[in-house]
Write a structure and sequence with these properties.
Jelly Rolls; alpha+beta; three-stranded antiparallel sheet; globular
């Protein structure tokens, strides 16, 4: 599998609206979530749908079969049938950033076979608002940058260092992302995952 793949219009307008409605009714944002527990004491907004531990490696997909999670479960089924065949879902949560709340470089896992899918849920996004997800190479240089366009998704190896870049002061929106953390078949359990 390629290390970083992104898909424009991964979810169509109708699916995006359905997910936004679901978030409006069901997500209670909590502030203080840390992407990099080791180096950055500053947090961002988060909602953990499955309440699994950050190092969880057990399949948690059955929890998504609750009727309340129908839009998330539909998206997970599609990922599992196409882009993530043979993967198990270990975590599912949402993050949000506003102006003044930036992300910090981190990895999602330290072992092979752990992947992250980010789905960007904003109804609109302008390049001048920034908020890119940046991916770094081994030298610490930005290798790839993905704008959070509505309905776009990116799937990547959890060992890749990445960060959310700050939103500009002219951005009136909250940058909202949905995360599916997965392990591929035969992957090593990662008990030290951040």
């Amino acid at each position: 599998m390629e290390k970083i793949r992104h898909f424009d219009e991964f979810i169509n307008g109708e699916e995006l609206t359905r997910l936004q409605d679901f978030f409006q009714k069901n997500v209670l944002w909590q502030f203080g979530w840390l992407s990099n527990r080791d180096r950055a004491p500053f947090g961002h907004w988060n909602h953990d749908f499955l309440n699994t531990h950050h190092g969880n490696q057990e399949d948690a997909s059955l929890q998504l079969q609750e009727p309340d999670f129908a839009p998330l479960e539909q998206l997970w089924r599609r990922l599992k049938s196409k882009e993530l065949v043979g993967h198990s879902l270990v975590r599912c949560y949402a993050n949000a950033h506003t102006f003044g709340i930036e992300g910090y470089p981190h990895v999602d896992s330290r072992l092979p076979g752990n992947f992250t899918t980010i789905v960007y849920l904003n109804p609109t996004w302008k390049p001048e608002w920034a908020g890119e997800t940046v991916f770094m190479n081994d030298e610490g240089d930005i290798h790839k940058s993905i704008l959070p366009r509505p309905g776009r998704a990116v799937i990547f190896d959890g060992r890749i260092t990445h960060a959310v870049r700050a939103l500009t002061r002219i951005c009136p929106a909250m940058r909202v992302t949905l995360m599916f953390k997965t392990t591929s078949a035969g992957s090593t359990h990662d008990s030290t995952s951040p």
